[in-house]
Each structure stands twice: as structure tokens, then as C-alpha cells.
Amino acid sequence: MKIILITGGLFSIPSIHHLAGRQLLHSIVSLGDVNKNNVPIEFNAQYLNVPFKRFQKDEIKTKLLNWISDAGVDAVLVFGCRYKMPADLLCIPPLGFYNVHFSLLPAYRGNAPMFWQIKNGEQQGGITIHRMAEDFDTGPMLVQHQTNIDPAENHGLLSARLSMESVALIEKAIDRLQNGNTETLPQTESRATYFKPPVIDDLKIDWEQQSATEIECVVNAANPDYVGAVTLFRGQPFRVLEVNRVQMPSPQSALPGTVVYADINYGVVVACKDEQFIRINIAQLNEGIFSGFKLVTLGIALGERFENPTNLQGVAID
């Protein structure tokens, strides 16, 4: 069996090594411009002596189509592709195109499923390998794997873990296809949810409306791919990369967003609604990335207040 892998994400690297080790890879394809995510894919392909090709979006119906047609592969496996595949391309491999998606479809369709699952506080997630259709994430499912999402996992940790767990699921999918078992399960449209890629407003911390748990969720969802959740401090954007909920020995009434503890030994503790509290462990300012303890030495003081961002025009999401 021979496979072409189309990928643009670092999370495909464990599977690349596994497929190359089994001598199943015909080639690796990346779509779009060179960027920080697909350059390591090319390096790994070179290291493994696997042919690597790069095509632009406007070359999908021409050069990519010809590459797949000439390759004569059995299937195409897709990891993190942001472009739709036309029907005349999907029908070329005898066994079809299969997409690896980091959610339990039909829930969390879209190209940022891990962000939204973490932000929404989901306790369970997973991986789905489904046959591709022209619309994103809608094709019938071949195999699924369910896993728990730890409340302390950020986007990077969950991505890394699912990257490793996807290797076994891909192996299961390949075994089924090689044995002639191509039976798939249609997705139930009534259970489908779709989420657009996050924008800067989705990274906001709302001190008045969000609980400590909800703030921790948005912070974890935004680290590291979106450079942290966003609040305002002294009128400037302040990116929060890691927090944890804490219990105060003598809870005090304070407006949400107020610094209620600032100490070089314990860090910065901020009041949330309903007399809940979080400690800021890591933050990014214009001057650099700092621990909560360092923030105290930089001058964050008891009684100061973080504010809800309003106009974030010009603030980058990554």
C-alpha cells in the first residue's frame, strides 16, 4: 500500500515517522506558502528520504492533481489542510482521501477544534479519521478514538498528545483498508457543530462574566498557538499564558480583576467573580515573557486592577 500525506502541521510528525518506517509513504505534500509549521515537515521528509512537494492553492486542480494521478497511490491521508479538495481530486485514489481531525466528529468541525474544545471546557475529545467530501469535515467516518481532556492541558500539550495517539489510530485505519474493510459510518448532521477560526475577541478575558474556571480555559486554549489570552493592564494589552485556580485562606470581597495578593514568593493572585481567585503564572508583555513572581518585582501591586479589553484593533492573534 502506498500513501501520499498532505500536511501543514507539526502534529503530523509522529505519523510521518511511523508511516515512513513502514515504507508506506510515496511522498509528503504541503499546501500554501512556507511558514513556521510546514518548514519542519520538509526537514523531516528530507531526513527520512521521503519526496516532498509544495503546491499553492491555485495549483490544487492542476499540479497537485497531476502529482496524485501520476503517483498511482492507493490513498491520500490529510492532516490539517485549510483548503477544500475538489471532487475530481478526491476520486483519484482507489481507496480515497482520508482526513485526520482532532475531535469526535460531527462535533467541533472546523480548523481549530482543539482551541474551541479547551475554551468550552470539554472533558472529553478525541480523533476522527473520515473519508473526505467536498465540504470540510463532513465525510463518513472510518475510525474514532476517544480521550479525556485534562483541565490543566493547554493547546500545545493537547496537540502533542493527540499527535502521538493518532499514530495508533492511523495504523488501525490502514489495517482496515488493507483488509478490504472500507465500511464507514455517516455523520449525524443533527449533532454537528461547526466553529470558525478564533479571532482576537475570542481570546478576551471577561473578569465580570467569566468564572475562574472559564478564565483558565481560555488561557489554556490560547497557549501557545495564539500567544495567550488577552486582558488590559494599565491601559495596555497584557497576554496571559498560564494561570491556575487558588484558594485564598481569608477570602476578601474585591471587584473582579483586582490584584488581591502580590508577593515575590507566591506571585500575583487576581479576584474573579463569585469570590474565586486565579494566580497568574506566566504572562507576556512588550518587554518579554515573565513568571508571576517576576511580575511582582516589575511593579504589579496589591489593589491594581486588570480590565476587560474593548478595542483590540491591531493586536495580533499569533
Automatic annotation (TrEMBL):
Formyl transferase C-terminal domain ranges (all copies): 202-287
Alphabetized InterPro entries for the sequence: Formyl_trans_C, Formyl_transf_N, Formyl_transf_N_sf, Formyl_transferase-like_C_sf
One GO molecular-function entry: methionyl-tRNA formyltransferase activity
Keyword Transferase: yes
Superkingdom as given in the UniProt entry: Bacteria
GO cellular component, one term: cytosol
Segments crossing the lipid bilayer: none
Keyword match Transferase: yes
Residues in Formyl transferase N-terminal domain copies: 53-169
Keyword set, alphabetical order: Transferase
Protein's name according to its UniProt entry: Methionyl-tRNA formyltransferase
Source organism per UniProt: Mucilaginibacter yixingensis
